[in-house]
WGR domain-containing protein
Amino acid sequence: MNRSHVIDSKLSLDLCAPIAESSRMTIVQPYQIYVERRDAARNMARYYSMQISMSLLGEACLTRRWGRIGSHGQMMVHHFAREEEAVKLFLELTRSKRQRGYRPRM
């Protein structure tokens, strides 16, 4: 633990720097979706979910999860500098899944 009064680095934790203005991004509205695709004739039961959230570094993150219903499935996280880019991909993927037969769980 550094108890000296001399600051030995510009990155020192002892430095009392003012908190930056609140220019951090915030999610304007929540973006999340959970859809399923079932076809008993093909023994198909799949899910697909997406969510946009903010990372600790202030980046917009689009988290996607998919797989067979009842399994852990797979996950992918996309990082974006701007929320608009994450929303654009979110909407494109939602449109694509709807065209492939995914529907909200009833």
Summary: The longest helix spans residues 83-99.
